[in-house]
Amino acid sequence: MVRLSALFLLAAALAYGQQPSLIIPHVADGGGWKTTIAIFNGFNGIPTRLSIVFRGPDGDKIAFPVTNFGIRSSIDLDLEPTRSLFLETAGAGANVQTGWVEVQQFSGHEPVRGFAIFKQSIPGRPDFEAVSMGMRTAAFMTFPFDNTNGMVTSFAIVNLASSACTMGVAPIFDETGAQVASEAKLIGNMLPNGQVAFVSTDRIPEMANRRGYLTFRPQNTCAPGGLVMLGLRFNPSGPFTNLLPLLAPSP
Length: 251
What we know:
Layout: H1 2-15, E1 19-29, E2 33-40, E3 48-55, E4 64-66, E5 70-72, E6 74-79, E7 84-88, E8 97-105, E9 113-120, E10 128-133, E11 141-146, E12 152-159, E13 165-174, E14 185-190, E15 195-199, H2 200-203, E16 211-218, E17 227-234, E18 240-243
Antiparallel strand pairs: 1-8, 2-7, 2-9, 3-6, 3-8, 4-5, 9-10, 11-16, 12-15, 12-17, 13-14, 13-16, 17-18
């Protein structure tokens, strides 16, 4: 009976323990951009302890101006059951600052959910927005792309491996099923917790004037940890929209 009680207590402790981090793969602030981060604790019957950490492309903490919180590189709080949290960057700077967000969760039997809203404001035209869901680590990610008729597809990748990792792209297929590149394309060697954001045709010129899908994956030498990404499709007249991953299996 004592042994069963101990096992029950251990199981209960694990059930209410740390959850995998929720990742917002890209944040932009200033230069006409602002980002709203929304987090929801609608699935836990207890307060959930969170640490919202802002990171730069090098993986280190970086401070962003957050409305009602000031300039912060992290925000620690308890999110009550059924409550939501909205954090909006100030967007006041003349130059754009970019990075990504890690939402660390230290309690709760269910992971929190969330998303980011990217807003671009340029004088003389309407404001444009797009929503990108927060994600958890994947072994690889497959995304659609569209670079036809003036459209531009951009991606942001976060390396969640515990060491530096080279990210590659293969295969790449256009809408006819033809392979766009004959060999894997390398995006670059990324630091642990590092992030890179890029226009697809800048790194892979063969994708110009084509649409289809492609798969991003860490190379064989990478430590465990996986990656998280987002994709955005920009219209030449200004609007942009989020691209959902077609595949994102757990590591």
